[in-house]
Amino acid sequence: MKFINLVLFSAVTALASKPPVKQTEDSELYNSLDHAIKEYIKKNNGTKFDDHVPSNISIDKAAAPASKITNEAEARGFIKYAGAAYCGKDSVLKWNCANCNGYAAGASEAVYFSDEDTNTAGYLAVNKGKSLIVLGYRGTKNIENWLHNIDISFTKANLPSPYQDANIHTGFITMCNALYPASLAAFKNAIAKYPNYKVVFTGHSLGGALATLTAFKLAQAGVISWNKVNLLSYGQPRVGNPKFAQFLNSKAMTATRVTAYADLVAISPGRTFGYEHNQHNMHINEDGKTVKCSIYEEDENCISDHIIPSIDAHFNFWDQRMNSKC
């Protein structure tokens, strides 16, 4: 059985009725993923994970050209903003958290939002020195429990032709919807005060999925124009089917998914389940060098679907580690 079936999505049926998984320490996240990988190798006699499904998705070069990708320096810097979403409410509001430094230093006017039922959280912060409005969303802290307790079925995106068949991950959109009223209110207030600031949506892991879907909802509601959306995620899972990916690819936003060699989260939910990533992908190879990926589809040279997954790959980006224990 493929690793994607064995570990990540052993139950394809809806699991949303289960109680929300509580966040735990980073060590538990590490150990749960380590256990899952060892179980896979044991049962498959060292067989390497293969999620390869031929991709037929194409990208509209006029709407989403190669230039619509964050530069590497900025991608390295925003790791701090993505990591800040793991920090507690008080330290985020004061902007003195463990990740509120480096490129993220100097932010203020932070607003923290969370939802107990879905165990999700995020923040909005303003950096006047950099003329930025940042919306950051927290990832999960227990990957094994998260992947076993989120409904991976599809929900209709309700988009017009030719994207009427676009679908979104049910679990992710449910979580996004739980935070959306607070995200919307915070964003409206910030953009009214700073209408010319650059707006960046960011997050790590599950947080990247929530950032993507929040940007989608705000743009579709007309609260922000697509060409002002800047999306930057790290180790983000797939959020929808090929038609939804095509819809996102058709928008003239700046979108970058940073992925690392051997990160299993970035290749889930599997394409075998009908999922597809939107573009663009900034991939970090095994040697730590950044790979230029195809802008037309999920590039097989930038997808770690043929190697044994690495635990550290989900947390390490270039010379930085995503600090989820904040």
Automatic annotation (TrEMBL):
One of its GO terms (molecular function) is hydrolase activity. SUPFAM superfamilies: alpha/beta-Hydrolases (SSF53474). One of its GO terms (biological process) is lipid metabolic process. It holds the Pfam family Lipase_3. The keyword Phosphoprotein does not apply. Keywords: Hydrolase, Signal. Residues 134-271 form the Fungal lipase-type domain. Residues 1-16 form the signal peptide. This is Alpha/beta-hydrolase. The lineage of its organism: Eukaryota, Fungi, Fungi incertae sedis, Zoopagomycota, Entomophthoromycotina.
